[in-house]
Amino acid sequence: MTAVHRKVHAAATAAAAIALLAGWGGTAEDDATQSPQSSMTSDSSASSSGTSEAMGGHKTDGGAPPEGIEQASSPTYPVGTRVTLTADRMPGMKGADATISDAFDTTAYSVSYTPTEGGERVTDHKWVVHEELEDAGDAPLEAGTEVVLAADHMAGMDGAEATIDSSTDETVYMVDLTMDGMKMTNHKWVVESEIQPAK
């Protein structure tokens, strides 16, 4: 390779790197106004790392339930039941078909927290279960209680300081679903009032 070719190659590599980094420098507001096509592009790259922006930053594989959580003894929707989701926390969630992958008797909390990796504060995040709180004591915790999260279903959540916004003692479910072409397994969490029988 000649010196001229090396300079051209180096310049092209630098330009590509700048373009790539510029694409990652947007804000949460920019992400919210992306076109569906650009959103799908970011979803594809995000899914390779196990998370998806289109899915609210949730991991595509929610993994195992937390230790100590109690299986629901007689859930309305047993494991394997096909259901329709009524929650609309992520694009494509409301009306999505899902399959119950597990059901638990616990307290679920809506929380607000600042991600450990920095960034804007997340408000009214639904849901974190009692077993995903460090040294939580007895359930339920009152709104306004300060806690530390021990959940990892979203980036920057594990170890984050949080405030309890509200709680529910409804049956809590993990579900498998596909939204906007992206498959999620063991999605954490959906509470019973956010589910209806499959259409």
Automatic annotation (TrEMBL):
Biased composition (Low complexity): 34-55
Signal peptide positions (record): 1-28
Keywords of the record: Signal
Source organism, top-level taxon: Bacteria
Protein name per its UniProtKB record: DUF1541 domain-containing protein
Annotated segments matching region Disordered: 27-78
Signal found in the keyword field: yes
Organism: Janibacter limosus
InterPro entries with a match to the protein in the record: DUF1541
Keyword Signal assigned: yes
Residue ranges constituting the DUF1541 domain according to the UniProt record: 79-130, 144-192
